[in-house]
Amino acid sequence: MSTTDFHREHVCLPEGRLSVIVEGPAHAPPVLLLSGAGVDSATMSWRHLIPDLARDHRVIAPDWPKQGLSTPWNGLAD
User: Fold this and answer.
1) What's the predicted TM-score (pTM) here?
2) Which residues make Cβ contacts (< 8 Å) with residue 59, sequence separation at least 6?
């Protein structure tokens, strides 16, 4: 699996669209990976770990609003 070939799902909310990496077997135990510091994305933070974890876990790694492939957030948080 290439680090640029991660499967992504998008969550569309009134405030904006979140891009979420979802990898691994659907019924495997879930692992939520959160990037930090507001200066990176899920791919940047976790690209080397996701393939290993996805062998036997359902990996969920969202891009925060305004990061990675998520859109800017249009709401009270701005």
Assistant:
1) 0.83
2) 21, 22, 23, 24, 30, 31, 33, 46, 50, 53
